[in-house]
Design goal:
By secondary structure, the protein is an alpha/beta fold. It contains 11 helices and 6 strands. 32% of the residues are buried.
Length: 244
Amino acid sequence: MSDTEKFPILFLIARPAAGKSEVIDFLKKTPVKTRIERFHVGEFAEIDDFPMLWTWFEEDALLDKMRHPRIHSDSDGYFLHQYLWDLLIERFGLEYQKKLRNVPNYAESFTTIIEFSRGSEHGGYRSAFSHLDPQMLSKAAVLYIDVSWEESLRKNRKRFNPEKPDSILEHSLPDLKLERLYKDIDWPDVSKNDPNYLSIQGYQVPYAVFDNADDVTTQRGEALGNRLEQVLRKLWNLYNKHSN
């Protein structure tokens, strides 16, 4: 397999509960041969900042128990410093470099899917993009899943499993926290200048928008597969056009 058949790096971004994790779950369960042919996604590698930040929350809870100062967040679960959001983005580059180092033929075989959400309140995508590793940007594409704030709120409530607050597919935020952190987003602003490419650190990074207003992601069925294939075909054509 070569980069002529697959995306090397795919950033998957959206509001919380928009369908990112469901798309990843669908792709993981698609046989690799079909996945390459339909979606241009190769051997699967995922980097998600949720497990990273959840570890911080767990550590702070343990520090509270030990009667030591919290490091990352206050007692309401808000970061003590805005730059911690950008630190998570810097971690993407670090984790990617470790994969390149540790996995033989990683770049030739794998598609790295990097999943995250950012709201304007904590810097938005503009701040996040400024902290991405340039080595990743040079071979990346962006898939944005578009849902309204109301839909994000609805699905955030629906997916909550109090028994598994650390679960990728079942974690949730309280309504007030979701509103404060994610109701306002800067995606329309960062993407307004060009319908096909984002200007990030001097790189022209191709992007496509997956409209999920009708929630085709929850069922993981063929409606999701067909729409995902259509959107990723467009993105693949943009990626190839730009690469050539």
